[in-house]
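User: Can you predict the 3D structure for this chain?
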Amino acid sequence: MKYSSSLYRILKPFIHLCLRIFFRRIEVDGLENVPQNTPILFTPNHQSAFMDAIVVACTISQPVHSVTRAGVFQSPSVAWLLQKLNMMPIYRIRNGIQNLAKNEATFDHCVELLQHQQTVLIFPEGSQNVVKRVRPLSKGFSRIVFRAEESKDFDLGLQIIPVGINYSQVTQFRGDLYLRYGTPLTIKDLKEIYREQPQQAMTQLRKQLQEHLEQEVVHINNITFYDTFEFISTHFADSFATNTLEKQDSITNENTSLAKLFLLQKNALQQLTNFAEQRTNEMQILAEKVTSYRQLLQQLQLKPETFAENTEPTFAEKVKTTLLAPIGIYGYINHFLPCKITQYLTYKMFKDPSFYASMKLGFGLLFILIFYFLQILLIGIFTQSAASAGLYLISLIISGNIALWIQEPLEKWRLQWKTNAVQKNKPLEWKQLETLRNQIESLIKQ
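Assistant: Here is the predicted structure, written as structure tokens:
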């Protein structure tokens, strides 16, 4: 039986290429934990609407069938497309109580796929949210697991794989993506419990997966000081380094792998958790200092990276940027309209930040292809030459990539210029900013 459409197989490598452009860096760990010819249930955290399913599907060799919120299936044409892309609807109470019964068909289809050694993806949190925290898991995935195993008298061999999806900028273009495929879970030890007390077995499975999933993501469990934890673990993780290797692998070092940055952040969060539990009063002071520091950065129109060691472009970067600037400007001009339309429609049509990255990828791809077609058509008509149109297409692709490449050193240059301007024109504010930073570092190093 055929379980994946031709459209899925055609689009997958193309979308994978688009992800390589959308993200500045992509790193994947733990693929050795993903077996072949075995029923697999991927259970990732859920921060970014459609993007989460896309990044998993594009890093796995076998076809992935995703359970998706039913609201996007309302249009018949969209529903047809999503089904061709291996997506299945899941209904919630907000979709109407009468529709909840339709979930049985989706659950049955998931079981059928797993029975035939296929791969299914379901978000156990049940909904998406941009917070860096694994929220309480819903019951849906555990029902699928036990139903599938029970259908084969608990001899199916289903592998439940927690997937940690870690974005450096969950809503933005050109952020970093770090994927972690964790150690598979099975329910062999829960078989007897399930036969006597099904609900208890499902509760235990959810607890196990919760613990495993928290290990694979940057998980901030302190709600009271969430913003402080998030900011410090992102921009001050170096201050928690405990050995020479960690200090060398700076959170602001571009050459540091995403895996090492992840470990630095996890270490910082663990120490922050201990700090908050053992030094309650000082934690409140630290939170106030961080708030003042962030407000002053915003007031001075500076970024937290201002104090990073690698903010100044290297000599080689300056030379390359200067030489490539004309091509980059050409690329920027040719891609300006589709990018601006994408940005406008994303923020106009969607208020939930968890949709931003997905829509920027989708709209960006759509409008760039439309503009490429129109521009090539006009060049072909104007020159009456297919060769000229083809060369123009090549120039669009090359110049667009160069525009992306020089964007980062140009941003460094801009930040350096802005920092120098603040130091010269607002010395008192700059001194206050340095003092606040030193006070934050002093508190967390004690």
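The chain has a mean pLDDT of 91. The chain is about 60% helix and 10% strand.
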